[in-house]
Amino acid sequence: MNSVLFVTDPLNGLQADIDATIGLMSATQDLGVDVWSCEPADLIVANGKLHARAHRIRLRPRRPAGGDHRWIVDPHWYDELATTGVEVATFDLVQLRIDPPVDERYLHTTYLLDLAGTPVVNRPDGVRAMHEKLIALRFPDLCPPTHVSADVAGLRDFVSGVGTAVVKPLDGFAGLDVWLVDDNHAATSFLESATQGGHRQVIAQQYLPAVEHGNKRLFLLDAEIVGAVLRRPCADDFRIGPPVAPAEIDDADRAIVDALRPHLLRHGIAIAGLDVIGGRLIEVNVTCPGGMHKTDALLGTQLSHTIVSHLTQSNHHLEGVLR
Asked: What stretch of H or E contains 107?
């Protein structure tokens, strides 16, 4: 393999000390493969072929901070070696690494990458098929009690039934606009705000006290577990913070992965991050799965390199991505 194109958000906006995309780029470069990048707006279809105005970059050296989930990096963390128009099919692999939400910009990018003519990870039609928050609901026995609606009265009844619920928008990400709603006099007001007065659908799940012991992120590569890390709520915030410790993989985790495996493989989801609390599946992250770079810095693991090595060396895998 000679070159990989990363379709990303603006490089200067990425957090070089924690961003998973940069960890994957660094691992790609370490294997002697050229790293190229472009933004969604740089994609062009001409004469039925997908092109990109792409930048070849070289990442500057980095090292773990030690005892932390961050890396020590140069503020100017990359050098631009070349900028040119190139047919996307000439790359050996494309990594789709723009952050959610899966909005109009994101969807248009996936449709353009359907024309890539080379493997794309994760496969664009697979990302469209597997909604990160709703795909888990196909497995109700594996999830906490869940209610999806824009109806405030129905959501209020659900909160009353479970006692406390975590409420978040269906297109939410990175912990934004997440509510902890208790069964009290403030619940209706919170739910009205969360649903924007009954006009936005949200997903409400029973709050699991086991989160105090950790939200487990399972890192999947071709539907097999390659690592796991614990994240816990911050001291002054119920939402999940950065990784803090290695996680033990147990039978409940394996059962969840076994149930999801056929769906992940069928849809060409090579990289996924599962969020599990107390043995219950919360989310299936497929749009821009993260956490690997932080985990590598904290624990000294090599998740980014494991993923990139597999993607660059497994012809069988790449055939699956193209299907």
From this structure: helix 104-113
